[in-house]
Structure formats: structure tokens, C-alpha cells
Amino acid sequence: MDRIGVVIETDRGELKKTNFGVITAARRSGAELYALLPDEFAASYQPLLEKYGIGKIIPIVSESGAVIFNPASRAKAVIQALYRFDIRTLFGLASPRGKDLLPRVAAELEAPLAMDCTAVAPEESTVVKSHYSGKVIAKFRLSGNYRIYGLRPNAVEAVAAPAAAEILPFQARTEPEALQFVESTERTDTGAELSEADVIISGGRGMAGPENFALLFECAGLMRGAVGASRAAVDAGWIPYAHQVGQTGQTVSPKVYIACGISGSVQHFAGMKTAGMVIAINIDPEAPIMQRCDYFAVDDLFDVVPALIENLKRLIGDR
Amino acid sequence: MVDIMRIYVCVKHVPDTAATITLLDPTHIDENITFIINPYDENAIEAAANVKRSCGEAEIIAVTLGKEAAENTLRSALAMGADRGIRVVTDEIPDSIGTARALHAAISKDGRPDLIFAGKEAIDSEGMQTMYRLAVAFGMPVVSNAVELTLKPDGVRVACEMEAGRRDIFEMPLPCVVGTGKALNRPQYPTLPAIMQARKKTIKRCTLQDLELPPADASMELLKLKPAVEARQGRKLTGQPSEIAARLLEILRNEAKVIEGGQDSHG
Fold first, then answer.
1. ipTM of this predicted structure
2. pTM score, two decimals?
């Protein structure tokens, strides 16, 4: 175990906080850590990457020095960087972007890829990940010349371990691809990315209608968190599918998951059971979620959430 | 004779989302439970059926790997619009590398694909990668988590959800591979006549040995399964909504430490 590459993701010009847990997980093997940045690079990233133990920072650009947007070209650029720096182990986030990049890299290299791992031991090439929607925990061993690990965001807590890093820019050769990137639509949502948020406030059938989700968005905004939803709320058309947490929605692992008016089906738990803390607000004391959470309030979410919003506003006004 | 469009759809036979999973031994679950077609694969079948409707003529072939029981999932796919099925006969489902190799060989043996669909992930193994491997094996372009798809004269235009609220639009020439997301369409559940008809459609079988796959020099080997234990002890928050909210804020700040503001505020 000598070198590990860590794909670093940025969002609107900032390093995503979820990168640091991935770096922490990679560092435990004692390997030298290479941060691979296929997104944009800014000098301000260096101190933060150093803080978590990165030794080499590799901004990856095209021949002309541009950020590579085409996902097929981007994956090939990452592979060229792996070859160039003789890196055989790659870590990344099982974020929406990582779920595209990592399998492309794995497929090209015909390398094993463990996706959405909750724990990794790269020195023995083993991982732990959820199976059957979190009902079972599976341990795997990866073998091959290259090994790739996609970590569930927030699954490993970030721990600082300062190092000094060197910046080694890398220009990849890009070739025309059959896959054409046309455009990205504007983000309609200004909140945090659901799968990577520290706090998620989610609404279910108890939200009673689409208009009431504004309450959750306001609360999430104050907590710098994201809004989730149960399948019932999505199927009712109250909130877009992108917010659905559960077996056929997103799998999330926030520090805190606040479930408002969600009964807590097996399928919903599949999407949020690895949350650090689960808080349930439900008028129904018999709702299954009340037995499977850390804190619960048997009360009307339309009374509790506005009161929480008031408290948050007061706190923010204070600081 | 003009070749009609050939659409292959990869489907997986998986435990029902509500099934209780128990272990028979450290690497096998008790399969004496209800199995279903992987939910995202229903979107894949529906996408294929939509393409067939829009281009008039096409053949949809559902492909799976598994034991005889997996033919129930093929029958579901046939009832939802597939014209015929292929089962690669195997007792053990290989890892993603082996699965992609088997699918590639089985499809290549059957015909030349114009379009391949697969659900963006299987809800049992949650691997999220087979369609990418299949695409590389065929030398085709691929995107996954498709939420919109339009057939163009010489290819497809696909929107993929890359972040909450943001979509990336791609174009690919045919042949290509598309991993389907839930938001792509609403699968139509089969009618009784469609289910009856599906029983008469052909299922072709071949064994993994028949496919003569060269050994892979990389793998992901299952070492051990264990049931996930839940250790949450719910504590009740009592009082008026305002008191509950105040307590929640304290938990968020001091226990979970997800809200800044520290101890310095005057509360």
C-alpha cells in the first residue's frame, strides 16, 4: 500500500465537506495521499486538503488547460493521472457525481469497484457496505491490479492530520467521444445536496399538501441542510422525486435526520438508517418510526416545526 | 430486409422491498421469500416500450442471470412489454465484472443491440456499475440515472440527474447504453391479458459455461453477510411545542453539533 488517489469534489467554487471523511478513510492505511481534482482548482483548496493529510494535489485539466465536462473524457483523464502517478487504489464519494465517474473508471480498467461503502480497509482490500437495502451488512474483498472505493457521504467522520502538500498539475489528453455533453440546466434548488447534507428535514404523508413543504425548506435553509421526503409525499406529487429518501430514492447518511409526519416504512428506513441521529415528529404515537429513532415528539409538526424555525432565527440573529 | 431496432433490457430478480432477510449461512440469504423484478428495471422496460411505441417497430429482449426462479422476473418483463427473454442459467450471481461479461456474451450471441437499458442500480447488491461495464464491453457510450429520454433520428437525447435540482443533458449515437432512474417514467402495470400472453412468449436459456467467458483477473468477493442491528432507543420529547422546539435546538447544537452558534449566544 503506497499511494492512494482520492477524487475530490467541489461545489460552486468550494471543496465539499464530505471529501474530508473520504480522505480520512484513505489515510488510515498509511499510504501517501494524492488528491485528484477533475473539477476546478483554487489555491484556497490547498490549506484544507493539507489539513486532512493530502501530500500531493493533482488538478486535472485538458490539453488546453480547461476543466473537462464530458463525463467519458473526465473518467479517461482520471485514468491517465492514475497511470502517470502510479496510483493503484482510488477513493471517491458515492455522490451523484461519483456514481457516474467511479464506475466509468472501474469499467475502463476492468477494476473492482465497491460502491456506497460505509467502511474501508484499503490495506487488506476489504470493504463493508449495505446489502438488501441496509437489512444486511456485507463484507467484500476486492482483488485486481486496481481497486476502487466509493464511500457513502458522511459515513466516515473527518479527522484532521496536517501534512504539507505539493501541487502537481496534470494535463490529460482528450479525444472525441461518442457521448456528447450538451448542457446543464440551472440548479433550481439552492439547498444542500441531499445525499451529502449534515442535516436533513424530511416530510411524509403528514405534510398534508405541497404548499406545506415551504416550512421544511425554510427550516432546512436555516440549518444549512436539505429537504427530503417519503415516497408517499413524492407519489402524491407534493415534491419532486429528487427529494425522495428510501429504497427507491436516495440513500442518505446525515448527522441528523428529522422525520416530520413520516410513519417510517421498511422502505423508508432503507434510505436513512445509517443517519447519525434520527428525530421523529409525528402526531401518531403508534407510527413505526417512534420505536426506531433517537428522539421523538408525539405532536403536530405544524406546531413544532414553526417553533423550531423561530428558535433557529433567534439563534442566527444572535450570532 | 431492413433490420428492426433491437432493444435489450437487463433485469434482475431481487427480494421484495418489504421482505425480511434472514441468513442461511455467512454468504447466503434464505431465498424462501417473495422476489420481484428490480424496481429500477421496471423503468428500463417501460423506457424500451416507449421507444418501441415511438419508432413503430422494434424488438425488446429482456435478459437476466439466475436460477429458474428468475424466470418469474423475465415473465414480469414480458408482461410489461418485452417480446422475448434470455436467461443465463447460474446458481450464483457473479460480481459486477462477471455479470457484465455474461450479459455482453449472451446479448452478442443473440443479436446486435441498438439500445441497451438497465435500471440504474439493483436494490439487493446496490452496485450501480453493471451498465457502465457492459457499455465498455460493447464499446458503446453510456449514461446512467436517466430522467428524460428522447429518441432522435440517429441517437438519443438523455437528461440525467447529477445533483438535486440540476440536470445534465447528453446526446449519444446508437447503439448505446442507458441506466434508467425512477423519474424517467411511470411503469404501466401489466393487464391480465398481457400477463396471459407473457406466458406464451419464448425464453431462451444458456449456461455460463456455454458463453465461454475468459477468466477475469479482477473480482469482488463476498466474504460475509451479517444482519444489520438497530440500536436506537427512542427518547420522548415532552411539553408544549415551544418547549419541544427549544429542546430540539439544544440537541442539534450541543449533542449532534450540526448547528453553529456555540455556547456564546445569550439564550
1. 0.93
2. 0.91
Query: Measured between alpha carbons, how far is A97 from B74 in angstroms, rounded to an integer?
Result: 31
What are the pLDDT digits (tens) for A22-63? 999 999 889 999 999 999 899 999 999 999 999 999 999 999
Evaluate whether B169 touches A184 at the Cβ level (below 8 Å).
yes
Q: Kindly state whether B185 is in contact with chain A, defined as any CB-CB distance less than 8 angstroms.
A: no
Per-residue pLDDT reduced to its tens digit, B22-46:
999 999 999 999 999 999 999 999 9
**Which residues of chain A form beta strands (DSSP E)?**
3-7, 10-11, 14-15, 32-37, 56-61, 89-93, 113-121, 126-131, 136-143, 147-151, 166-167, 170-171, 180-184, 199-203, 226-229, 256-260, 277-282, 295-298
Q: What percent of chain A is predicted at pLDDT more than 90?
A: 85
Name the E strands within B142-217. 142-152, 155-163, 166-173, 176-180, 203-207
d(CA A28, CA B113): 45
Number of CB pairs, chain A paired with chain B, less than 8 A apart: 289
For A282, the 3-state DSSP assignment is: strand
Chain centre distance of CA A225: 13
Contact list in B for residue A280 (CB cut-off 8 A) is: 234
DSSP letter, residue A250: B
Which of B209, B129, B227 is closest to A101 using CA atoms?
A: B129
Q: Which residues of B touch A17 (CB under 8 A)?
A: none
Q: What is the pLDDT of residues A127-180, one digit of tens each?
A: 999 999 888 999 999 999 999 999 999 999 999 999 999 999 999 999 999 999
Nearest CA in chain B to A277: B256
